[in-house]
Amino acid sequence: MLRSIMVAMCLLVMPVLSHAQADKLKVALVLPGSVTDGTFNSAAAEGIKKAQEKYPNLQVSIRENTQVAEAQEALSAYARDGYDIVIGHGFQFADPAKRIHKRFPDTWFIINTAKVAEAPNLASFDNRWGDAGYIAGAVAALLTESGKIGNIPAIPVPTIQEYDDGFKRGAQRINPDIEVMSAYVGSFSDIAKAKEITASMINSGADVVSAIGNENVMGTLQAAKEKGVVMIGTAFDSAALAPDTIATTALINFDVNIDMAIGKVIDGTIEPKNYLLGLNENGIGLAPYRKFEDKLSAEDKAKIKEIMDGIRAGTIDDLPEIR
Questions:
Q1: Do 12 and 4 touch, CB atoms closer than 8 A?
Q2: What is the mean pLDDT of the segment spanning 224-229?
Q3: Residues 88, 71: contact at Cβ < 8 Å?
Q4: SS in 3 state form for the chain?
């Protein structure tokens, strides 16, 4: 009897919110770049927009272009202002969140693209970037005519390294003799440098390129458009920016991350742990081929489907290591 009473009391105090209460949630999204970068930050902004559509009265604040030195204060300021959920979009928010989260027990700190967690109120949502890169590399290998492709990552941090490694492995699965070029920009925001590196790869024969990061991706897109080569996008489906250049995009579905985080806070199931989302969780995907539908044969498309089915089933044994 006493046990039953105690269980009932615990259920009464669990932080489970109804949809009406959920509409009163205050959610902050702290971004390292601009919502118009066409990739990483755009994808997160789209995710928070979808959350607002699901919960129309959700109170949302977005802070863009947050520098590393500003990260801790940006997270703290939102918590002091009574925000229920503060989402740091990027690995650079992990350490600042670890330093401050215990000071604000009424706020859940959620970090995207990092593997960090700590009781009572710090969790992270990461995606299988290596799997996404693997799919992108396979598509690039099927589209190339020169047998040379390139990837231009921003800086060597775990998620980006996973994508880069996956891009190489996926391409080599299709064609073991393919030449895969890779060179880091050294910056998330240096568009000119990314354009220069991409142009150099194209001049060396690459006719399909990819890029991963923030604003640096726009430099690769500019070079690809000017040189008339194909690009595989990353994270955010920005084909509308260059429909004759972007064949498809290796999607990182941050809307799923954000929706899952908010949903788990609402129903009280959020835990201080890392949630890792792949194809099976709809955390990654592949955008439509659109204008490039006819560039890939039915056999080519079947190969991509076979790879994606294999990733879902866990039967592909050369996927990149999760760092």
A1: no
A2: 98
A3: yes
A4: CHHHHHHHHHHHHCCCCCHHHHCCCEEEEECCCCCCCCCHHHHHHHHHHHHHHHCCCCEEEEECCCCHHHHHHHHHHHHHCCCCEEEEECHHHHHHHHHHHHHCCCCEEEEECCCCCECCCEEEEEECHHHHHHHHHHHHHHHCCCCEEEEEECCCCHHHHHHHHHHHHHHHHHCCCCEEEECCCCCCCCHHHHHHHHHHHHHCCCCEEEEECCCHHHHHHHHHHHHCCEEEEEECCCHHHCCCCEEEEEEECHHHHHHHHHHHHHHCCCCCCEEEECHHHCCEEECCCHHHHHHCCHHHHHHHHHHHHHHHHCCCCCCCCCC
Residue matched to tokens 């000071």: 103
Cβ-contact 247, 232 below 8 angstroms: yes
Distances (CA, A) of 233 to 191, 238, 245, 297: 15, 7, 10, 20
Quick: pLDDT tens for 61-106: 999 999 999 999 999 999 999 999 999 999 999 999 999 999 999 9
212 token code pair? 């991963």
Question: What would you report as the CA-atom Rg of the chain, rounded to the nearest whole angstrom?
Answer: 21
Here the tokens at position 36 are: 């118009």
- Give residue 57's pLDDT band: very low, low, confident or very high (50, 70, 90): confident
- Extract the tokens encoding 303: 């190969």
Q: Which two tokens stand for residue 147?
A: 């047998």
- What pLDDT score does 21 carry? 53
CB 93 within 8 A of CB 30: yes
Confirm if 27 and 280 have CB atoms less than 8 A apart: no
Give the Cα separation of 132 and 282 in Å (integer): 11
**Type of residue numbered 191:** I
Check whether 312 has a pLDDT greater than 60. Answer: yes
Strands 246-252 and 85-89: unpaired
What is the residue whose two structure tokens read 């592909």? 316
Q: Are 68 and 39 in contact (CB under 8 A)?
A: no
